[in-house]
Structures are given as structure tokens and as C-alpha cells.
Amino acid sequence: RFCIPLLLASLPKMAAGEEIAPALQDSWGDFWLFRFFVNAAGYASIVVPGFLLIQYFKRRNYLETGRSICFPVIKSCVFGSEVKSVHQDDGSLPPRAEPTESSTARQVFKLLLCAAGLQASYLTWGVLQERVMTKTYGTTETDPGEKFKDSQFLVFMNRILAFTVAGLYCALTKQPRHGAPMYKYSFASLSNILSSWCQYEALKYISFPTQVLAKASKVIPVMMMGKLVSRKSYEYWEYLTAALISVGVSMFLLSSAPNRTVSTVTTFSGIVLLAGYIIFDSFTSNWQDALFTYKMSPVQMMFGVNVFSCLFTVGSLLEQGALLESLRFMARHSEFTAHAVLLSVCSACGQLFIFYTINQFGAAVFTIIMTLRQAFAILLSCLIYGHTVTVVGGLGIAVVFMALFLRVYARSRMKKRSKKLPPGETPVQKV
């Protein structure tokens, strides 16, 4: 309630004298708002018929009357096969396996492996993301080259590989019996697609360091969505750290405004797209948290969400005729093909490292690794692409990461304290 205005205070200054690179204004069809509504219309053409079918089967009481050859598929998609299980403590993942006979050296090796895998996957992913969305391909002395503009195709590439990896993992390993109605994954899938699209599209208007810091501030809308969607309560220290993150992000944005350039400008359009990313991503995490009340593994969740993500994106791309155009772009520029494939590989492998790290070492260790990854990503982007950071901006970055580490420390302390207290007694007052 008191930290949102700090972020919004930077918007008028960013909006004043907003500049958009000429390459982004080739036609009205390339404007992000137009593309957003076109993509949304494509998703609606799949969602609306699906919704009507689900309502039809429920009204017909299909579980009692249906006996066609499609009965197992319809039952799985619309009704599921099991009731909800008891909600787990962390709300999203199965209990972490405690090491029993594993030596300290082996645990250290596993931790280093997880840290290296996460850093390599997501640092490479970040560098490639900025390269694909902001630089031209096919540049020669006589040809200025061309930029790849269809963010939805990159989302499709990421999701089709993640779907394949998750499917193979589920097929090769033992998984819990799946009971959730498949259609419920579509809500998280749709918000996940839109958040990823906003993330890619925002790089056309803002610098990568700005995007990383803004993503760190998604703690605030996640908490708001948690109250609205899951009716969660939060401690006072969580509001304090959220306020510190807002202050740090605002310092960075305001310090960057006077030094705008075409390539590193923070514009109003970029802020709106980042807000869209944060809102959609906050809904995704809270909806997935609610879905985990069914008995399922994280990889099953990954598979279910990506099934619908592939369906939505390929349907929308085919309706717009953008799939063939993107494939032609890949054929013209082999370098882009390599970048897009590697981008997808890093995204899929990164998700598997996330599941393994949390299962082996817990959410606190994972959060520390990923927070360090964000700091390294900003440093790497500045070194490779020449972004400049002022003293005030650097101080803002320091405030943000200090707040993130403070959240990890406070959360771990709270968990230790809550284990020592008698059942039903809370260590601090929640709001």
C-alpha cells in the first residue's frame, strides 16, 4: 500500500519525451499494443470454444451418461480422476528429500553442480534474449540487416522444447497418479504465455538491467495476488523488504531517465510491458500454487502448462500467418536459428535445475543462487552490450539485492523459529 506509489512516481518522468527506435515504427502492425490484442484474439479463438465444450459436458453430466470412445480423454480433460490432497507446507513442491547417507563432499558437489547449472542456463538465456530482441541479423556493408520482431514465436520455441523435455522426463521416471482436470492448466498457461511475451517485447523499449530490476520488484504484485487469489497472509518484514525493493527500483529508473539513448532508453511503453509481465507472472505462480493442492509433481505441472502453451501459441501463429514468416526468417539467418534453439534449450534445462535444486537443498538456497544470478546478469549485460549505470542507479541496485537477501534470511529464521514453537502458535503477527 505504501510502496506502489514509489514505483509509479517514476512513470511521468519516463513518459515525458518518450522515444521509440525508428526500427520499431515500421508499421502499425509492429506496435506492441496492436500485437497484444491480435495475440489475445488468437488465444480467445481457442479458449472460448473450449470453455463452451467444458460447460456442455458438465451440464450433460458426462461422467454418468458418456460412454463413447473419447470418454477417457474427456474425463481427464474436464473432470480429472482424483480429489484434492492436503495442501503441502510450501504450497508448490513436494517435501524436500533430506540426505541420509550422503557425505558432505557429495552434498557440496551437488550444490556446486546445481549452482553452475542454474547460472549457466539463465545467464546464457539472458544474454541471448537481449541479443535476439535488440540486435539485427544479416548485417553487411551494403545491407543494414533486419530485426526479429515476433516475440510470440520465441515463446512457442521455448514452450515446445519444455513440453518435450517434461514429457520425456514423466515417461522415463515414476510420477504420482495424475488427478487434476487438464483444462485447469490452461489458466496458468495463458498467463505464462502473456508474461513471457511482455518480457520479450519489453526489451525493444528498455535495457536488460532495467528489466532484471523490475522483475525483482514482482514481490509486490505477487503478495497482492496472493491475498486476492489464495487469501494468504504476510508478516511485516515481508512488507518492509517489498518497500525497500520498490525504493531501489525507483532510484535506478529515475537515475537512468536523464541519460536516455535510443538503445538503452526506459520508456513508458517499456514500463507498461514490464507491469504486464509482473501481473501475469504473479497470477501464474499463485494459480499454480492452488493447482498443487492436487497430487502432482513439479514436472507434471511443467508438462500440463506447456501442453496448453504450445496449443495456444501455435494456434495464434497459424491464424496470423506468422509461423511461416518466422520459419522463413530462420531459413534466411542461420545465426538466429542457433540463438533461438539455444535459448529454448537453456529455458528447458533451467526449469529442470530449478526442480532438482529445490528438492535437494530447499527454497532458501535456490533463492540465493537465483538472486546472485540476477546480479551477474546485470553485470554481464553491461559488459557485453555497453549499458551504463550511474552512481545513484548502482545504489538502487544495491538496495534491491540487499532487500532480496534480507527476505531469504528472515524467511529462514522464521521457519527455524516456527519449528520450536508449540503447534498453533505463530511467532509474529501477520497482516
UniProtKB/TrEMBL annotation:
GO terms for cellular component: endoplasmic reticulum membrane; Golgi membrane. Residues 1-17 form the signal peptide. The chain crosses the membrane at residues 33-57, 108-128, 153-172, 236-255, 261-280, 301-318, 338-356, 363-386, 392-410. GO terms for molecular function: 3'-phosphoadenosine 5'-phosphosulfate transmembrane transporter activity. It is a multi-pass membrane protein. Keywords: Membrane, Signal, Transmembrane, Transmembrane helix, Transport. It is found in: Membrane. Its main location: membrane. InterPro entries: EmrE-like (IPR037185), SCL35B1-4/HUT1 (IPR013657). Belongs to the nucleotide-sugar transporter family. SLC35B subfamily. PANTHER family: ADENOSINE 3'-PHOSPHO 5'-PHOSPHOSULFATE TRANSPORTER 1, SOLUTE CARRIER FAMILY 35 MEMBER B. This is Adenosine 3'-phospho 5'-phosphosulfate transporter 1. It comes from Pheucticus melanocephalus. The gene is Slc35b2.
